[in-house]
Design brief:
- The protein is built from 25 helices and 12 strands.
- It is α/β, with parallel strands linked by helices.
- The strands form 2 sheets. It has an 8-stranded mixed beta sheet, sandwiched between helices. It has a 4-stranded antiparallel beta sheet with strand order 2-3-1-4.
- Helix 24 links the parallel strand 11 and strand 12.
Length: 731
């Protein structure tokens, strides 16, 4: 069991890390509730005193609507240099509202420099003096500052109390001013808004005056440019004799179109006449039948009529030829008529063919005349276009100068006639006088102080619990020390002079203590059923943990059932002799081991208590040598034969090594831990020392346990004390 102690501790710590025990947290808070309450009460009281001495601060807010507006000179960008459709415009206005220039204007207007809150010469005015020190860091006295520095400190303090807050997604802005004077706060908030509106109007007036001056200068130059352009236009028109150039352009264009059409027809006629001229072989005089199918012959009406007459005469000759002979007068007359008609047709064809050359030459001449006329017309058009271009340039110059002059003249008139009463901002809500301060929020500050102090107290309680490694509960013995709990001994009230702690088990009125000792007795007996623990050593980590009280009362409890001997082996600080009413120096363990006294002389029979006692006797110079001797071992063998149980009260393990030596002779060892006093590390170190020498540790007795601690940790007292004694009170 002892060898597994580190593993048990690690296992218990691991489980504790994984599971949050809210009851443990509540127990820590409950145990320190009066300390937390006391801390909160002190902090709240101090806070109440502090806030009572604070100067009340009043706050007034005016709401201003800033509107975007257009300028009346050339464009708003040219007058104000901004674009009101952008968010930057409103951000700029907010910065103007919070500007130093506007603050100085209001301070001067309301004479705030001489107000007690802002007067830098007022020795009680710490705010302005603090602002003044920002200008002169090493200034020992405010009187050494210059007037300019004092003025700057007033402005700085004024701007600290001024807050400009835009209302989100609107064109509204809140102007808030804080002051110790409830009448001054609304005056300043409203004055800031009025100063902003006035400064904006003044800026507009100044910009308009500048724009008017600039426009006047520009109008003078533009008037001269317009007159020069008009003079140049008139001179050019007179020089070129231009009246209506648009009509000339139209007429010339129509003539060119007509000549172009005639040229096309002339070219067609020339091509046709040339093709007919080439078809008849130039100037050839030999008649050809093919001439009769030429277009010129076919288109000639006379030739076609002669052709038709020839055909009619030939038809008549053919009919007469069938009817008469060659010498018949009618045949001869018809033949003569046919020859005459043929000759007439051929002569006409010959005449037409002979005229093809003349037609070709005439068509070619007509074509060349038309082409020449077109060239002359083109030159005339080019000349007209040139004149029109120059005229257009002059006309555009006149028109442009005239438009610029008219526009600037119109803007000049609009600028001079601007209504400067229309501002870009107006009040939505004026600031009203506040009747209750906004600072300090005394109830809120006191409440926050109370809450924070409670939180701080809880944190300190948890910190104390984290730093406090003492053992309070039986569960902690198993978790931190890895040992079983033999019993939990309650804390008893302060004993009177007639009551001894070593005999408390038999005293009336201490039923819970007696019941706890009976539980401890039962645990000791049950731990050795197969082999009863005849010699039991009781020890602890350090002095003052109550091991002597446990040893004596356990002996009394066992004495009701068996023969019991109680030995005081704490030979450095013996106490059992005094507790049981024996004089110091009474023969005891030291004399018995040294052989200077017999066992009977050293054994005190406490018949009324039912046990025997061997005191420590005279304190030897080296108790450890005495306890390590063979005589001490032989003495224990003798005592084993005479008694059923031997309880040995040993010295603490951290002070000396006596308990380590005694444990080698014992059948069982009880380790006493004082509740809410013994550190877990100290107890674990003592147990580890005993474990190394093979001490028969059967468990731990938790002594002086306060019942209220269990309640504060969420445990009932019935689990620690015997049933039937809950009515007794403990402290």
């Amino acid at each position: 069991m002892n060898a597994a102690m580190p593993n048990n501790i690690a296992q218990n710590q691991s489980v504790g890390d994984e599971v949050i025990d809210l009851r443990q947290y509540w127990g820590i808070i409950n145990r320190n509730k009066w300390g937390i309450a006391g801390l909160a009460a002190v902090v709240v009281a101090a806070t109440v005193v502090m806030v009572s001495a604070m100067t009340p601060i009043y706050e007034a807010t005016a709401t201003l609507l800033i509107e975007a507006e257009a300028a009346n000179v050339v464009s708003i960008e040219e007058v104000y240099g901004i674009d009101s459709s952008q968010r930057e415009y409103y951000q700029t206005q907010f910065e103007i509202l919070n500007s130093r220039k506007l603050a100085e204007r209001v301070v001067t207007e309301l004479d705030i420099r001489n107000h007690p809150e802002f007067d830098p010469d007022n020795p009680n005015n710490q705010s302005v003096r603090g602002a003044l020190l920002s200008y002169i860091p090493f200034m020992p006295k405010a009187q050494q500052a210059t007037e300019d520095q004092k003025w700057q400190s007033v402005i700085a303090h004024f701007r600290e109390n001024l807050t400009i807050t835009p209302v989100r997604n609107t064109q509204l802005v809140n102007i808030t001013f804080e002051s110790t004077d409830s009448e001054l706060a609304p005056k300043v908030a409203n004055a800031i808004g009025n100063a902003y509106i006035d400064s904006h109007l003044e800026a507009r007036l100044e910009l308009t005056q500048k724009a008017s001056t600039w426009l006047t200068e520009r109008l003078g130059g533009m008037r001269g440019q317009l007159e020069a352009a008009e003079t140049a236009l008139r001179a050019y028109q007179e020089q070129e004799n231009l009246v209506d150039i648009s009509g000339v352009q139209t007429l010339t264009a129509k003539e060119l179109d007509e000549l172009t059409r005639r040229l096309s027809e002339a070219r067609k006629a020339t091509t046709a006449s040339k093709s007919q001229f080439d078809a008849v072989g130039g100037s050839s005089k030999t008649y050809r039948v093919s001439w009769e199918s030429l277009p010129g012959v076919l288109s000639d009406q006379l030739a076609q009529r002669l052709k038709e007459e020839q055909g009619g005469v030939e038809n008549t000759f053919i009919e007469l030829k069938k009817r008469y002979g060659p010498k018949h007068p009618k045949f001869i007359a018809a033949e003569s008529q046919a020859d005459s008609a043929k000759n007439s047709f051929q002569r006409r064809v010959q005449q037409i063919v002979e005229g093809f050359q003349e037609q070709y030459e005439q068509a070619l001449s007509d074509q060349r005349q038309v082409e020449k006329a077109i060239e002359l017309s083109k030159l005339e058009i080019q000349d007209i276009n040139r004149k029109n271009y120059e005229l257009s340039q002059l006309q555009r110059a006149v028109k442009t100068n005239h438009q610029l002059y008219d526009m600037f003249f119109q803007r000049f008139q609009e600028t001079n006639q601007t209504d400067f009463a229309a501002a870009n901002a107006r009040f939505v809500d004026l600031a009203m006088r506040p009747y209750s301060p906004v600072k300090p929020k005394k109830l809120l500050i006191v409440a926050l102080a109370g809450v924070l102090s409670v939180m701080a107290g809880v944190m300190l309680a948890f910190l104390r619990a984290a730093l406090d490694n003492t053992i309070r509960l039986a569960e902690e013995i198993e978790a931190k020390l890895g040992q079983s709990v033999l019993g939990v001994i309650p804390l008893v009230p302060k004993l009177g002079k007639e009551v001894s702690a070593t005999g408390l088990y038999l005293q009336q009125g201490y039923g819970s203590f007696a019941e706890a000792l009976r539980s401890l007795r039962t645990s000791v007996i049950l731990s050795g059923l197969d082999k009863p623990h005849q010699i039991t050593v009781v020890t602890s980590s350090v002095p003052g943990e109550g091991k002597t009280t446990i040893s004596a009362n356990l002996a009394l409890a066992l004495g009701q059932m068996e023969r019991v001997l109680l030995i005081d082996a704490d030979m450095r600080r013996p106490s059992l002799a005094t507790e049981f009413g024996f004089a110091k120096g009474t023969d005891g363990l030291a004399e018995l081991v040294a052989g200077t006294a017999s066992l009977e002389a050293c054994t005190q029979h406490l018949d009324k208590l039912g046990i025997d006692l061997i005191t420590a006797g005279a304190v030897p110079p080296n108790p450890l040598d005495l306890l390590s001797s063979k005589r001490f071992e032989s003495m224990l063998l003798v005592l084993r034969d005479k008694y059923d149980r031997i309880i040995i009260d040993s010295a603490p393990t951290q002070a000396v090594s006596d308990s380590l030596v005694l444990s080698t002779h014992a059948d069982a060892l009880i380790y006493v831990v004082k509740s809410d006093s013994t550190a877990a590390t100290v107890a674990a170190n003592g147990l580890q020392r005993l474990t190394k020498v093979g001490a028969p540790i059967i468990g731990v007795a938790l002594n002086q346990f306060d019942a209220s601690v269990a309640a504060r940790y969420g445990h009932g007292t019935g689990g620690y004390y015997g049933y039937g004694y809950a009515s007794n009170s403990y402290s």
